[in-house]
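Ticket #4471: complex job returned nothing on first submit. Input attached below:
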Amino acid sequence: MMTPSAKQTAERAIAAGALLLVALGPLIFSDYWVSFVLTQTFLMGIAAASLIFLSAYGGMISLAQGAMAGIAGFALGNMVTNASSKGLNLGWNPWLSVVLAILITIVVGLMFGALASRSTGIYFLMITLTYGVLIYYFFGQVTEVSGFSGISGIARRAPDLFGGGEDPNRLYYTALIVAILVYLLIRFVLRTPFGYALQGVRDDPVRMASLGYNVSLHRTLAFGLGAFFASLSGVLYVWWNGQIDPASINLQNTVDLLIIAVIGGLARVEGAWLGAFAFIAINNYVRDVSVPILGGSFNTVIGFIFLAIVLVSPDGLMGIWDRLTTGRRRPAFGATVEPAAATSGGAARGTSGQVAGHGTKEPPREGGGK
Amino acid sequence: MNAARLERPLQIGARFVAFGLIALAILWILFFADNTNFGPAIDDPRNFTITLLNGLTFAGLLFIVASGFSLIFGLMRVVNMAHGSFYLLGGYIAYDIQQEMTGTGFTVPGAEVNTLEWVLPALAAAASIALLGLVIQQVFLRWNQGQELRQALITIALSVIIADQVIAHFHDGIAVNITWPGWTNRLVDLHIFDAQYSLARLGLLGIGIIVGGLLWLWLYRTRMGMVIRAGVDDQHMTSALGVNIQLVFAIGFVVGSALAAFGGAVGGSQGGIASGQDGQWLLNSLIVVIIGGMGSLLGAAAGALLYGLVFSFSAVYLPQGSTEYAIVLTFVLLALVLAFRPHGLFGRVG
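Support reply: We reran it on our side without changes. The output follows.
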């Protein structure tokens, strides 16, 4: 058991060590590890971080993050390609296209967020799952913007800072820097008035509403911010993969992102990259396994791992770390207590049943007021 | 700027826009849809009738599957993400049983299937998935009631496992077709606008209505149904009154799973069963209950009807060259409902 400050020091030391390791990545690890495992870890971690940001600090578990990344990716692909036979072939300036792709995704995210902002917890999860699958079907059916089987031939445009040409190391460092910036930005936002209000909305929407905060607006803006992070992941993905097709954002991908977030730990943003690394590593080394007795493939394995984590340690790997070091864990699902909407009246059933240990929560309010 | 003062005119304006859109759509279909596949309804009432029936029959199938989903959520607050997997597994089991009974090894021609050879596979599939549902509910969902998100994640994990197992054990997940009984393989003359319609598809609607009727009878005219409705309204109070709420939950989950599997058998007869449909039918169930509202039989019917009609009409009455945007109309429907009734048309708050 450590004191919280000792734990924080330990975490910082580990983080510094890990950063040093990945900064020297191309020198230490094989090309395969650098360009496949680690770069993918960084960019999928960014998407997972957007999910965890929304769930841990906004109380909204969104299954639409993968689809948001897909919107950015398809937008970029359509704008950048010129001579391809598929997609819109707009052939615009690559950097302008990146900015536009991100903006489009943010606008879509704000729109979707506004529609879903009056729902919480499980309703919100369902609505965002519906969004995610609808977006997938949209790109699957509207072949004007998605090509018949995707848009390919997208050149890597990682910034010209780390050597020339299409060196995969450029993308590696770009992804790493963007991941670090996203993490720092999340930490920063959480300390702004908006961030604190958002956490208040997570904890008690009724009280926040009665204090005069516009609960729906906070949720909408948070969702837009999540869309922004996801769009970064989408842009990096397209640079990394050179192409994008509707199958990249199918239901499997949506569930994979959720699995990454849960494995890493839904309560802490650091879990995003931890979970991404674990998932990609398992993905790589368990690919061709065949499950004994049951039959089935890799998906059965990952399904069982996911199930085990949700049953045993819902806070994922970071939760295990938290429990080992301080014996106390941050709740992963603490945000889903009823009352379901800011406008609902009945408060009495609000505190039953959810995960214990949400430190700042007070006992049920008395009917007559205090 | 005082946001509160803006709210009432915004609400009225939004309602105006919504009704305007709906009226516009209906007028378009009836009178102005010139460069579409069939033309406006006044010019081609026959195809309009057929499209209408396509929507209604699809709504029948949607209702069968989504009512199970809605029942499970309404009663236990469990979003059963494995509902689509139950549909898929139920469909494949029904196919295998029908193959055992008719013994051909590939799609059976309608003439060789009698009624029993359809009904028995469908019921057997429903029964097996009901059993699976019972096991899942007792092992994974009984002890963590109230933790909705955790339960949703558990059912997601189970859906991944089941979907993969289906591919491993049921013909690699390739598309198969269950065959309707031979006597349904004919067209019925509707005597309206010279329209003829497939009896088998009308059977979809008929089965949907029968299932709806049976569910209504069960929920509103039996003691067990009354207890279930009480559980949907207030599970703690119902339990406090001495009802064995765990038994009620188990029954609810079993019936819901059986409905999904029965839907799989019916849908598999209509459009075939293939891997990937679990995601499709989870989406369909979600859309129907988001529109209609959770835990409400009437809501499931209303949601199924709206979604079925929009789905059917949008595929046909969009201008040619834009028919690929049909999915956007589904989203518009969803957005309209969410904007005005975040809990669905007939959903209850909390």
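The beta strands of chain B are 187-189, 196-198. Closing as resolved unless it happens again.
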